Amino acid sequence: MSASAKPSRYAGTPNRPVFMGGCPRSGTTLIRTMLNSHPDLAMPHETRFLIDAYRRRRKWGDMSDPERRRELARWIVRQPKTRVQRLTKDFDAFVERSVAAPPTIGAVLSTGFTMYAERHGKRRWGDKRPSYILELDAVMAMFPNAQFINVVRDPRAAVASIRKIGWFADGLSAGTALWLRSQRSADRWRRKLGSDQFLEIRYEQLVEDTEGTLSRLVEFLGLDPGGLESMLSYHEKIDIMSRQIHPLLDKPVTAAAVRSWETALERPEIGLIETTLADRMARYGYEPVAAGVPIPAELTGALRDRQRRWRREDRQRRRAQLRCRLLYRHGVAASVPNTRSTTRVPAPPA
């Protein structure tokens, strides 16, 4: 799937931030580790404050007030769930540099990522979190020149892995609904963003043609092609040690997990995924194997329940953010060189 045919007005601007997302368990951590191995791009292990801070921007108030910037920075430092220590352990310096940042929430929130890049001697920064595919209204409001990478994996493999990890009690239905939810969001933003801002990478292509896929990624991001060799040897310098969640990260790329779902899922479970996601699976060339297999009513019922729950949550979030856009009258975008003013908050695509 390609992005919009037209480049954005930010095409060619230097040192643009890079964001990556997709359905969980689709290979975002693998690609993040490869990108972080490039000499020009610093992409830390997942943090968890960017979207939460943006959604609460009315609480922080006008960022032109240095004390409001200090309050936001201290909140990030004091909340363990933000994982800001993955960016820097010098919290005092982080707070003071946040206070000295330009007066928008995007600029303040970029401080830790800039410090991470500086610590590793790199000129650009990025951030990876699967849920960014669902939060692009916030990402693009704060960083309108950003480049986004959407990672897609066979939904049967992604769902099987989500269930194995145990993030949801209803792993099969939650994983299936989440894959669809992620792809629907990707479709909306693919139409909205320019060809220089949105790129889709398929996990299967990455493991089958690693060098070719990374070359396409390097070209999209405008990175030095000379860093490709370092990206291919990512496993020699990994910074994430989790045998349970990422057991293959310290090894060269392998296609061993591409079809592991065949033994991890029962036939009716495969049938549920294929029936629900038939059109989108066909779009990516994922061939069905369980056509005509009876699907128990409890599986379809659990899926409907999960979809209803998330639709309700999405509606509530949209209403809350509409109120926030109407009531928060301050700039949010980090500064973008050589372009028109970018402080307006864009509405999410329909």
Q: Could you say which overall geometry the principal axes of the C-alpha atoms support?
A: globular
CATH class of the domain at 18-36 and 128-327: Alpha Beta
| Biggest β-sheet strands, sense, barrel | 5 strands, parallel
Physical arrangement of strands within the biggest beta sheet: 2-3-1-4-5
The fourth-level CATH homologous superfamily of the domain at 18-36 and 128-327 is P-loop containing nucleotide triphosphate hydrolases
Count of separate DSSP helical elements: 17
Low-pLDDT segments, ≥5 res: 339-350
Let me know the number of strands: 5
| Percentage of residues in helical conformation | 40-55%
Strand % is 5-15%
Query: How is the CATH topology of the domain at 18-36 and 128-327 named?
Result: Rossmann fold
What is the terminal separation in angstroms?
A: 19 Å
Give the overall average pLDDT: 91
Instruction: Give me the secondary-structure category.
Output: alpha/beta
Second rung of CATH, namely the architecture of the domain at 18-36 and 128-327: 3-Layer(aba) Sandwich
SSE string, helix = H, strand = E?
Answer: EHEHHHHHHEHEHHEHHHHHHH
Rg, alpha carbons: 20 Å
